[in-house]
Protein 1
Amino acid sequence: MRNTLCGLLILAGLTGYSQNDKYQFYLDLNKISSDLIEVTLTVPEIKEDKIIYNIPKIVPGTYHIYDFGQYLMEFEAFDKDGRSLSGNQLDKNRWEIDNAKTLAKISYWVEDTWDADVDDLVFEPGGTNIEQGENIVLNNHGFFGYFDGMKHLTYEVNVTRPDDFYGTTGLTTIKTIGNIDQFTTANYMDLVDAPIMYNVPDTLTFDVGGAEILISVYSKNKIASAEELSKDIKEILELQKDYLGGTLPVEKYAFIIYLYAGQSGSGGSGALEHSYSSFYYLPEMPAEQLSGFIVRVAAHEFFHIVTPLNIHSKEIGDFDFINPKMSKHLWMYEGVTEYFAGHVQVYGGMQTPKEYLGVIEEKLAGANRFKDDLPFTEMSLGCLDEHENQYGNVYQKGALIGLCLDILLRDQSNGKVGIKDMMAMLSKEYGKDISFDDEKLFDKIAELSSPEIRSFFTKYVEGENELPLEDLLSRVGVTYKKDVTLKEISLGGVLLSFNPETQRLFIADMGNINEFGKSLGYKTNDELISVNGVEINIDKVQEQMDDYKKNTKQGDKVEVVVARKVKGKMKTKKLKAKAILVEKTKKYLIEFNDDATQEQLQLRDAWLGQKQ
């Protein structure tokens, strides 16, 4: 096995730490071979004759089995005299070592997950990246492991980096000696909870609610910068700070953002939450085009500082990385978090109340794709296997459960107490270091609120009943209708997509084109330039389309200017037709009730954060 111990021994001498009470890992980012990097571990004291070293099969937040041990190779164990110790690999993620009482060092090489030759690629925010001289993503569960029964020892990770690299993380326990960074955590769970990204720095920091916020961006082609992206992130964080009572329950939080060029290896993009950071894997495009997506995703991921950071079950607090036991409370971990991410925007004035009703309609439409009669607690417990294909409903029906609870709690308290207040009570009850019993959470919430809340959980979260949205929304003066036929002005019923080269929307599919679209004479791949003299701005396109529909009546002349390829050349063409009201069926229609009572209006204002 290749050896890099020389520099490691120097560092060990500099630190002066004892080596028998903690894990000491070493890796050198300057010494990478074919996207492989060596990891060396000076082991804590082992008291057993045999010991098993584990790399996670699954990690919190992913809800998917990835077998991170499959990316390790050339695993070797040595005693203090450098002699090899025998053992065997038990499965993809576990290595058994003989004569473990004499074990002094382990070494192995790690392949990154982003471009690995495997059937099931790891979703990039939870994976690892090794690009020598460019970018290293240390999602620590992909590099570092633990011995059976020894997850709660101190972890020390020593990283030798290129002189011009910087390691972005949410950790605050960092010591730097020359070009060696030393990260320390109290246990393995905290290490896994703290991704680190290394590259030439593009960072920015600011303060929100007493917390230091760090924005770090890697964009190979320098398409977007930390400074540009921080503007939208800061705006939503200020709203979240006010939403949570004026301060944030963390000292430091890092937004670690990797912008990829070309195609996503896994076919997806998004983010993964952690207690003090979140990692983003998003397409490389100008900041203004990322703006809306960044706000939505950042709002969700940041709210995880409430749960599971300060409210979590034993299954999460002491996570089993090899034989995971799922909690039945995904309605809270992901559902309430997703509800907060949307609700904070209307509560803080970033969205209008009418726009927020559109968000509810989207959640209803999304939930309609999943099984509504599957108890949410049952889905949560089986999300890794039997109900894996239902997991996505945590962001749809899970958010609607949060909405129902918010209105129900406010109705019981004359608008004074909502679900964000209930989560604050639970945070005080438990906190980061105390896990709740999975079977007792519903009773605890009822104890802090009312028996009616416990009945809600019994019927609609543990039970198979359809959420009582019509009843609860009516209490805040909102009407709920299903399968409604409307007549509206449209742009032709064509499917639009985005061309990043021309920065225009184009007609990608005409399978559902309506009479108005046919009258205009669209052709596939037409690129929209303007509608009724208003040039299409990709950053304001939704607002522009809403204005068009609002201000156009049946029979009005409509002119759409498109760029169309004719004989290999792009030419501008004007398409004209008279507007036609087209019938459209909506599965769900959510509207404000013009005849709402004063009591309903007051409760609505409290729910949506509107000033009296």
Note: The first strand starts at residue 22 and ends at 28.
Protein 2
Amino acid sequence: MQEEKAYLPNTKLKGTTAVTGLVMGVARVYSRGNININSDPVDESRLPEEKKKFEQARKTVGVTMVRLSDFAHSRNDSDTRDILNAQHDILNDPELEAMVNRMIDERNLRAEKAIYDSFQHYIDLIKSNDKSFIVSRLSDLRDVRDRLIQNVQQLGMIASFGKDAVMVAEDVSPIEVITFARNGVKGIVCSSGGLTSHASIIANAMGIPMIIDAKSAMRMIQDGDTVILDGYGHSVIARPDEEAASSYTRAIKRHKEEEKQLRHVTEKPSETACGTKILLQANIDFEDEVLNIEKYRAEGIGLLRTDTLLMNSGPLTMDRKRQEEFCQTAFSASGSSPVTVRLLDVGGDKLLNLKDREANPFLGWRGVRILLDRRELLRNQLEAICRVAGRYPGRSRILVPMISNLEEFLEVKRELADMQDNLQKRGVPVDSNVKLGIMVEVPSVALQIRVFAEHVDFLSIGTNDLTQYTLAVDRGNSLIASLYQPLHPAVLTFIAMTVQAGTEFNIPVAVCGELASEPFAALVLVGIGVRELSMTPRLIPKVKQAIRLYEIADMKKLSDALLGCTTSEELKKIRNEWKAGYEEKLREQRTA
């Protein structure tokens, strides 16, 4: 009975959107399967043959990795290439090679068993470290292991699933994501996975819509099912009936038409209907995204996140040279526009997982608190930024995350001055006018914003954290998702206070949280007085389209109405009324 229930039509699964998009296709349930390892020892005379099998498997898998790396290179995808290089290093690790051959010789093992046991030794070592930024690489290790074993057993790895395929898996490795991309896969659904995993990052780079953490996907979806991946609704629909399929077909067509229309908006200036300039900038996580700065006409980078660089480094260490290269790429891709580099912001739900677990990581060791405790990490990063800033004078802004008191900011300011002085003495050109600002994401800062405004060069509002700290709502907790309201009057009041302080002290105020990328919210923010918005590059045209249709006076009416709300129902009513009017405006524009 339970099995029949699992395969009912219109089965909806909730998940987390790793890459937005809306696609409908054929489910291809992908599993590496349980590898059947033959543990029976072999005759001593066959040991050279087993070692030869292992060596041949290494060569074959190595060639595959090189081809995949070439594919990544053809897309200017340096992050993917870095990951593949790391996996290639695993494959060619001399200690691993020696261990496999030693196990074959000393224990008379078959090549597949020696490979499995050797990799398991390393996997157990990594698990014992209990650090998520290391544990997240387990899928990479397993992928290399399974490819070797399957090659030894003369098994195929991934067949071509066709251009209509939506992959359904427990989890996927970076190599698998690239292979899926080469086969024209439409989307990926995982029952586990993380937003900061290598696979999610590469899927984003490849533009493949991806839902993760859809917990029942492997049980509720059968190979060959029609599935809808709705990245906007954070859901997957298996076996849609005719009505649902038709509805989503229309929605997909509508999205494609909207994308065509938005291409015309891309070239137009970012200003309101009354001519007020609004700066629309890009949030950038990794190097491949810088190509989208020009594509979507972003006016510089409002948030260059450096957190993902930690994934290819050791625990709380980042290679200074690699950081410098990342910043150099960002500056060179931004023309003459400004670039705001945020200092390392790990902790909470991002990358860091301590051996001594924190009871409440969101209120714990994160952001600037880590940087001030680990000064070498801070100085390393400041040096990388300052070196690049010296090549592009007048364009650099450094953003300090998770500030909760003025002393933290002043300490970072001293470190920056010391670093610039040190570099100058070493003959390295520096930009003495680098701007230093803070993230406004903690209520204590918003309440005392005038105190901070006296000392900072700019303010950037992180609405994601500001919302969760103001409303005491964990933004990652699905049980209380309805309480997470970025447009709550209390949050908007803090934003308005920050804007007012910026005006009073004549310093720029930007919003770089996810709120800025939603048209309705963007209008509200502009109505409050924000003139700089930063977002995922491909969402810029949609926000620009909305801004160009309204005057400042219209937006102020909207923000005043929301500030006066006392219930979420009032807010919802205002939003729905705006949406109806906005859609009418778009229709009039299309027919004009």
Note: The two ends are 57 Å apart (CA to CA).
Protein 3
Amino acid sequence: MPLNIMFKAVYLIINFCVSLPPMKKKRIFIPIILLLSIASVWGQQPRLMLSNTEKKGAEKGSLDKAKQEPKDTTEAIYVWRVNETTGERIQAIRDSIRYNFQQTTIPDGHSVAIGYLGNVGSPSFSKLFSENPYERTFYFWNLLDPYYKNPGKQLFYNTKIPYSNLYYQTGGSQYTKEERLKGEITSNFGKNFNLGFNIDYIYSRGSYQFLSNKSLNYNLFASYIKDRYEMHAWGGNYSFLNSENGGMRNDLFITSPNSKDLPNTTYTSTDLPVRMNLTWNRVRGRQLFFTNRYHLGYYSKEKKHINNKDTVVDTFVPVASFIFTSQYTHQYRRFNSYDSAFVDAKHTIRALDTLYTEKHYDRPVNDLTTLTEWKNTFGLSMREGFRDWVKFGLTAYIQHTTRRFSLPNSTENQFDKHFQNSVAVGGVLSKTSGKLLKYDLDAELSVAGYDFGQFKANAKLQTSVNIAGKEASLTATGYIKNLKANFLESNVQSKYFLWNKDMHDIRRVFAGGEIDLPQTGTRFSLGIENVQNYQYFNANKTIDQYSGSVQVLSARLDQKLSAGILHWDNQLVHQTTTNQSVIPVPQFSAYTNLYILTKLAKVLTIQAGVDTHFHTAYYAPGYEPALMAFYNQQDVKVGGFPMSTLYVNAHLKKTRFFVMYYNILKDLGNYGYFSLPHYPTNPFMFKWGLSWDFNN
């Protein structure tokens, strides 16, 4: 099947599937994607590789190197990401890890400690303060960060042969099943142009009533790389539907299932009473991204060893680049409910209304908030290394942003509009070559419009030293930020919550360092952050701001130990905060993984073991569905329970496979397997998954 026909077929099929009713959509959608991914193998034809000049360019970029396995140099597949502001290519590594595959498939695997509603695809946040995204204008995406795709997360490819990957995972019974299907297809058309498509589909019924998740995200991406011109394009569509149950009505069903205060009956997790039903949060959006870089430079003669002989070739040396980047985003979030309760033969009440003290309109809740944003950036860059004495690269840019917010008011089908314009200038100073010192310094200042006075400066320095014949890396990071308060958090207009507040700028200062010792499998990091005017949702579920300063100190140790085929990996994190009621964090968090790793018949890699996530008890944030936000509370502690899985991973050539028993300690001790107040994680569950590459 020619790939251009296959891409067109995928596009038509996706649009057809999206228009189907929900039940038919699932039955038809998964088999079609399976067939398309397998069919792509038959159309694979050899393609041209990157030239040496282009390969060198693909390696340049950020100092942020992915901490995964080294790139498989036997494959003619080169990958990178792009900076969403400057279009600079950033070195990246394709996901091809051969062990711990099972951890990438569950919400717990996104962090050492994470809070979420219970199943795959649900809103979540990291319990490690430094890992949480904060600066998104449409803050609802912060809760869906592990599943939210944007141009900065996209891998761009240059391939010698077409590449595709199919990933599928499932678990649970017929009534609690969780399924996730991901697919990616990409191919070069000539040596300069690459086109790709990927899709991510989640259908999770959930182990508790009215807690299902469904999402469909797909995007097209393309790149065109030549000596004088680079182009990257990305277009995505994403849709998340989260059913909300408001948490357990009575935690005793989990913490004390044999309590005398509970009915003396047999029940399963799907029988437990919850606070809401027939209530949903929908978050949808579409995004277009286009970046161009035109290079000024010259060609020089360079001797290279090609086909066992020395050859003189012309090599392009870029001196400066003109940059234009444009990004369009439209996003919306809707909260609605058909939750009603029977009173008598003639009357029903809106049961959801009884959970809230304020009601700002009488009709059934149907809150819709939208954001449309258009951002354009013009820049000029001087390239690193075009002369021996030019040891750094320098970029300057100006950026214009326009936004339109739409908030519901008390009149049916009427909305309040808010418009913002902002102009910012920024620059990047970087050095990405050499071993003695690498650095990446960037700063941005808003000089006009709504964001006037907002300032962000980030710094990263890296060096390496030789210890016992191996390189150990030392990294220092820091930032200073003066940020405008989030508009959608400061201005809430809905049925149950209403406020419009003027908030002060938020000031954040961070300094930290890391040392990585491959000789001993040790990585240690330490960081401290000072936050002033921190913005958060308080115990009354309204926006609040702490005018003082809060310091958060974090120390992390990653240690790998091994003896033959026996391995023991550990991640230990200690956090302290000067004000737990403003920024609550668990004092100690840990992930430990004990396993055997061996090969059978020299081709099949087997990993079998048990791993555990654990953190000390603390007043973890609660979750409010009507706001789709996490709020601080001081009533219920969460933690002190080991979330353990028993697993087997297998890797054979281009195929990865795992089986897992999730939450094997469910019936241990205090039964406290809560991730958030009133939100238990899934009970004991069997899961399996498969990832299959087609690139031969």
Note: The helical segments are 3-18, 22-39, 52-59, 252-255, 487-490.
Protein 4
Amino acid sequence: MDNRSIKKLEADLWESADLLRAGSKLTSNQYCMPVLGLLFLRYAYSRFKMVEEEILKDRPVRNGRQMPVDAKDFTAKSALYLPEMAQYNWLVNLPENVASLGLINVSGQTMGSLGEVVNNAMELVEQQSEQLTGVLPKSYTDFSDDLLAELLRIFNNNALDEVGGDVIGRIYEYFLNKFAKNIASDDGVFFTPKSLVKMIVNILEPTSGVLLDPACGSGGMFVQTGDFVNEAGLQANSSMTFYGQEKVEYNAQLCLMNMAVHGLTGVIRSGDEANSFYHDAHNLEGCCNYVMANPPFNVDKVKAESAANAGRLPFGVPKENKHKEIGNANYLWISYFYAYLNETGRAGFVMASSATDSQGSDKDIREKLVKTGHVDVIISVGNNFFYTKSLPCSLWFFDKGKVDEVKDKVLFIDARNYYTVVDRTLNEWSEWQLKNMNAIVWLYRGETEKYKVLLEEYKSALKEMIAEVGEDVLNAIMDDIFTDGLETAKKHLKTLREYAKKAVETCEKKEKKRLQAVWDEKIASVEEIVEVVKEAHWLYSKFGEGQYDNILGLCKIADIETIEGKGWSLTPGAYVGVAPAEDDGVDFAERMAEIHKELLALQDESNELMGIISQNMKEMGLV
């Protein structure tokens, strides 16, 4: 199943599930956890069947019958065993009148509704996994049997059997993302947008060791790290040890489910003992290879004495107010992230933009921090990267194991104008934009081979995309991807759109809808090619074959002396300057002629509507 088909599957499943929510009396908040629980159960069943098939291949036969599988067989393969009454296929095929079956739950009571049966399935799953004990939702009696049966049917889509567990994990993330937009009213603290998470993971490049997220929310840092490590050819659960703290227990449950859906295990603490301001719940100060987090910004009223007693403040305690409280906890978080690192550890985290230049005791802490030589990269991020707020933010990176060439240097990147628009209120970095930003960091670190591999990746990806779309004329792009290829791709796209418009206008009326869909699909494929070529051109035009250079308005390497001269500011804009305005490639006279034509058409339409309204009013005797 290709990427476009998976995206359609994600959207179709969400639309079906959300229509049911809209038709019920449940809020998104009430609906979120149970729906994610069903997706988890569907994933667990998919994994169960796959492992069961492996076990049965070499299963011994006694008296002409193959020996049945049991929980021990699955434990041996680090897989979750599902008793029959927790298997998705069994649940989805139950008759309408569940009460007539006389089913008994884990407590020995008779079950009278489908909701009770699904609750029991969750209990049975928890009995098989210590990590999931008390985590899975058990509120399915809030649903009518009809609604719950329809949800079970939706997630029994046959396509999920074809795409396998990894894609079910992706669909789980998609649903979590969609729910985050609907639910998140508390500053979106439980969900960090994927492109920010991927940027952090890509720059830290985790391979093995201890990873801590002391504000772990729904576990995005763990999931993305798992993907990164697995793609590197390692086993995430063997290479990494995951630790998390999350004060809100609801979010910690989401985290554990999210990790389980992606086949990861970890130790997550929640509740008051996991309040990072007052507790190092895992006693990991100085022990972590990696720290990643998106902490809540600008938290106030943190008890200064309690925070000081909890330690992990190598640069001192931020100044308290007259109420003996710390009025802004940003530098508590920043200090924690540094303190948790071992002698070669790396940290990456999201932080309020104001923290790069805040004054008072914050500035004193920042000075001490910069003087360690361990501040590695600071990236400014533009507006609308979060679901519930439009404020900009910054990404900070520490590295206690920097190579000598950059030991006392910091790479500043201003990415506020580099992003892809998703919709009116949301921006993100595309996969290629993430790679390009990562490439700047590679060149700063002197890792030119990785940069060259990326150039080859652009070539191979475009070759494959062009072959798939079947437009031979696009092969001309391959002659010079990084320079003239962009203009070639744009010209072809423009020609294709014009041809499509004529073809649809001149075809028979009954064929218009079908033909439009065919052309739309082809145009979308070529648009995707244009976007990839554009990103290849963006990267190569700045760094060529792999030579780092300070680019006005984008990136600059500054030493500690330069940073001191800027009053210990870590705001990228203070260093990179302002990029010259770029020609957008639009012919002014041509565009003005198009606008004038559009205005005339709108004026004609307005006059026609006014005539209709006047005639209607006359017929009604109002004029």
Note: The chain has four domains: 3-172, 193-445, 453-547, 587-623.
